[in-house]
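are you around this afternoon, could really use another pair of eyes. what follows is a protein written twice so to speak, once as letters and once as structure tokens for the fold. i want to understand how the tokens follow from the sequence so walk me through it. anything you notice is useful, everything is just below.
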Amino acid sequence: MKAKLNRRTFLQRSALAASGTLLLPSAISCATSKEQELFKISLAEWSVHNMIFGKALEAGWEKFGHMLRNDFASIEKGASLKNIEFPAFARKMGIEAVEYVNTCFFDKAKNASYLSDLNKACDDAGVKSLLIMCDAEGLVGAPTKEERVQTLENHKKWIDAAATLGCHSVRVNAGSQGTYEEQKKLAADGLHLLCEYGDKANINILVENHGGFSSDASWLVDVMKMTDHPRVGTLPDFANFRISYEQEEWYDRYKGVTELMPFAKAVSAKSNDFDENGNVVETDYEKMIGIVLEAGYHGYIGIEYEGKGLSETEGILATKKLMEKVRTNYKKA
């Protein structure tokens, strides 16, 4: 059993270079030149959601949802970090690209002045906006056509905001109802509606393995094929492969990422706990990043720290350090 890295140990070791050489998968053969980065590192805003939401989450999801829709100002009052400050925070972490979460500025999608200020904050920090992760805007694969159209209407403002911010994509949830096969058809129909609108704004529509059948990679692959639109794609997350909470059913994460990578337009490096050597306990980053690279992906991989053993800042830095170590090892291969 691996020992977890606690906050004290992290602080003691943060200034030390990682020891030991990790084994590299022999199958990897990167076609990029030595001058080209194997991948770049971005920061997903969910990594700082506790700083942004403050104590609002302690009220429970139902009350938090009410505040989100009706009193977002009260959430901001308790924040130790605001969305407008996120680009500068990322730069302080040594990261030059960000992935927003819509609930971190939920009342500002149509606020042109705010979006202009956010663009300026990015310019001032030398940070690039990549995408917006969209939640709390309805089921993309809702049972009725009317509901799916309403979900489209709810997402339009975020697609427009993504275009204003210079993003390439929005991430949506392929939530649905019905049987396994019925949900495929419903999700594909809803995604196609979003893609048609996204096409007008030059914005891609990505689906993350994010619970329910979307965490079943074979299901999501079928949805991608059924959607049949160049704007649709996946955002594989290293860890979100729990299909059912009632039966605790999991899809193999390495198999899942392998299957989702042919459709990937972004990648999320989820991290929770670290061992005493600075490795993520729940995911073999060396193996997982190898899968990403072997698929021919050399874009941004976004840090998404979600652990409790370290502070959000420390968890981000620990994840970044590990990713940089893995990247260096692959460059040497």
About this structure: The chain has twelve helices and ten strands. The chain has one domain: 39-332. The mean pLDDT is 91. The first strand starts at residue 40 and ends at 44.
